[in-house]
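Render this sequence as a predicted structure.
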Amino acid sequence: MTRSATSNGTRTMPIDELSRQVRLSRQTIVHWVDRHLIDADLRWALNENNEEVRVIELSEGTLDFLEGFAADYREDTVSRTEARRILRQIDRKKIKKLIRAGDVEDVEVDEETKIVVGSIEDFMIEREQSRMGNGEEPREEKEE
């Protein structure tokens, strides 16, 4: 599926492409659309190989906002508890393992260990791409 622009200023693109462009995981993008934090619509379409792909339809203004907001969001830091929520993992030991393995970046803020959101997003993007590269069906990104 290639990008398409419509006469009313909206753009439709595969969610994977938007994920790469703004450096946010598909999970985060879908979460934000489901919560109406960004004005966009999600749907399924067929690509050139006649395979179903998730696409997003958004305005140029929304895309511009998302690019700027995503850059700021990636630089933010969160507590381990918040990192677990973003990663949808309940076990705090898993977060510690990710930190020790260097899979996510931690920083000391006011004598508390915080996790850099950009490193969480990079980890989730890598995990999503790994699943697709292994021939696994991408998990449906939706709010629970």
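Summary. The chain has two domains: 1-75, 76-136. The radius of gyration is 16 Å.
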